[in-house]
């Protein structure tokens, strides 16, 4: 059986985890006051999440986007209802 060597820390840092804090169990969506106080003031908010674009839709475009999403959801629901209806009809005819 091989003898284990004692662990030696070489001092390298792969990822700095010093700013990571546990999320609040009571209000998980509310940012903590400590995080807001320690945040650097010179960086804009978009630098933390570069994949999020600022909302550039006006009211009419937002309405049409919501109606398009509603239409897509209703079409998917209609496909399920028609499919279930065909299955029930097929079972009644073959029973």
Report on the structure:
By secondary structure, the chain is an all-alpha fold. Helices cover 44% and strands 0% of the residues. The longest helix has 36 residues, at 59-94. It is flat and about 75 Å long.
Calculate the mean pLDDT score and round it: 79
Overall body shape: flat
- pLDDT below 50 for ≥5 consecutive residues: which ranges? none
Rg from C-alpha positions?
27 Å
Number of strands: 0
**Count of helical segments?**
2
Helix content: 40-55%
Strand content: under 5%
* Helix-and-strand structural type: mainly alpha
| Cα distance spanning the termini | 69 Å
* Assembly type: single chain
Order of helices and strands: HH
- Major β-sheet, in short? none
Task: Summarize this structure briefly.
The chain has 95 residues and is mostly helical. It is built from two helices and no strands.
Which features would summarize this protein structure in a list?
flat, single chain, 95 residues, mainly alpha, 2 helices
Ordered list of secondary-structure elements with their pairings:
Blueprint: H1 33-38, H2 59-94
């Amino acid at each position: 059986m091989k003898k284990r060597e004692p662990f030696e820390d070489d001092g390298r840092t792969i990822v700095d985890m010093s700013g990571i804090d546990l999320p609040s169990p009571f209000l998980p969506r509310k940012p903590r006051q400590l995080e807001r106080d320690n945040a650097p003031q010179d960086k804009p908010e978009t630098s933390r999440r570069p994949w999020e674009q600022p909302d550039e839709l006006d009211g009419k475009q937002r309405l049409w986007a919501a109606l398009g999403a509603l239409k897509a959801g209703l079409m998917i629901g209609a496909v399920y209802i028609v499919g279930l209806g065909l299955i029930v009809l097929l079972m009644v005819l073959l029973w």
